[in-house]
Design brief:
By secondary structure, the chain is mainly beta. It contains 3 helices and 22 strands. The protein has helices spanning 2-25, 64-69, 207-212, and strands at 61-62, 77-83, 87-94, 104-105, 110-116, 118-123, 129-131, 135-139, 145-150, 155-162, 167-168, 179-180, 183-184, 204-206, 220-224, 227-235, 254-260, 262-267, 273-276, 280-283, 289-294, 300-307. Residues 1-27 have low confidence and may be disordered.
Length: 324
């Protein structure tokens, strides 16, 4: 063992000299080129037919004003927006001073986009933080959390969970057994430990502060099992012709939260429309769709694409890929 350690030390001492000598003899040594990506798979792909209308509460476009109008006069409310086999998403409004119960989810992350007011977000084992409009929050699985409204105005936020998720209520904050239709809550121990904090080392992104104003690159915020939350930013351009069908997904629905500017969506079975910030738009599984940035030419826009698969497949026409 000692002999091997000596060899390692000698090798480490000689390595810089060897590298320097190599650089002198090959001063213009080019870096190895990255391998070309593999060609896309050409296959018989199942396409949904006939056209299937959206089933409530799903809509091609959920305008925020419509959701608010349905709960006019209420200080606190929840409005279901997305329901599919993989994901669910709701608008939540909390009255001033209101706080959610402490809860966690067993196996999947929770994504939250704060849209109005200010909230204090508290995660077990992490410093609490204040979030306001445009904050994207990544809550790991098996970490209890609470959301509390700050100030004198209600807080409004959009929350995304895996469709299979059911909340867990920590025993130290919940004494009475919760109730859920068709289920019985019992005292149990859940193993596996808490999920890791996001890649940024913190559970949030101030999208307006860091990206819109700070110049950081828009990118995927969550890319985990069963949940992909991807920030896509660009400038408004003329709407592509209707002959540009875009693509469809074989195994899942997709929806987008409009974070900034405008998004124009062409989706099979619907007229082309342009959505504004705060709207939620969607395309069902197996339906052609094409999203582009609308509004005045050159205006910046951001759509937050949400689906269950970070490496999900996209089916295009053969012509768009240069094949017949």
């Amino acid at each position: 063992m000692k002999r091997n350690n000596i060899y390692l030390i000698i090798g480490a001492m000689l390595l810089p000299t060897a590298v320097a000598a190599s650089a002198q003899t090959n001063p213009a040594q080019p870096q190895a080129a990255r391998p070309a990506p593999p060609p896309p798979l050409a296959a018989w792909v199942p396409k949904k037919t006939p056209y299937t209308p959206w089933r409530a509460p799903n809509r091609p476009r959920w305008q925020l004003a419509d959701a608010k109008a349905m709960h006019r006069g209420k200080a606190s409310w929840t409005q279901p927006i997305v329901r599919n086999k993989d994901l669910v998403a709701d608008w939540h409004q909390l009255a001033p001073g209101q706080k959610t119960p402490s809860l966690a989810y067993s196996d999947n992350r929770t994504a939250i986009i704060v849209w109005e007011g200010e909230v204090r977000v508290s995660l077990d084992g992490q410093p609490s933080f204040t979030a306001r409009k445009g904050f994207e929050i990544d809550i790991p699985f098996r970490i209890p959390f609470t959301i509390e409204t700050l100030g004198s105005q209600p807080a409004l936020y959009f929350q995304i969970n895996a469709a299979s998720d059911m909340p867990l209520y920590p025993l130290d904050t919940t004494t009475a057994a919760p109730k859920a239709a068709g289920w019985v809550y019992d005292r149990r121990i859940v193993t596996g430990g808490p999920g890791p904090i996001g890649e940024r080392g913190k559970p949030f992104l101030d999208y307006y502060g860091d990206v819109v104003e700070g110049g950081a690159r828009a990118s995927a915020f969550i890319a985990d099992q069963h949940l992909f939350v991807n920030n896509i930013r660009g400038r408004a351009t003329p709407t592509p012709p209707a002959s540009n069908l875009g693509h469809f997904h074989v195994g899942y629905d997709e929806f987008w939260f409009v974070m900034e500017g405008n998004v124009t969506l062409q989706v099979e079975g619907q007229r082309v429309f342009t959505a504004a910030a705060g709207d939620v738009i969607s395309a069902p599984q197996g339906h052609w769709h094409r999203a582009s940035f609308g509004g005045p030419e050159g205006q910046m826009g951001t759509r937050v694409a949400v689906n269950p698969y970070p490496s999900g497949g996209h089916a295009y026409t053969m012509e768009s890929q240069g094949r017949q």
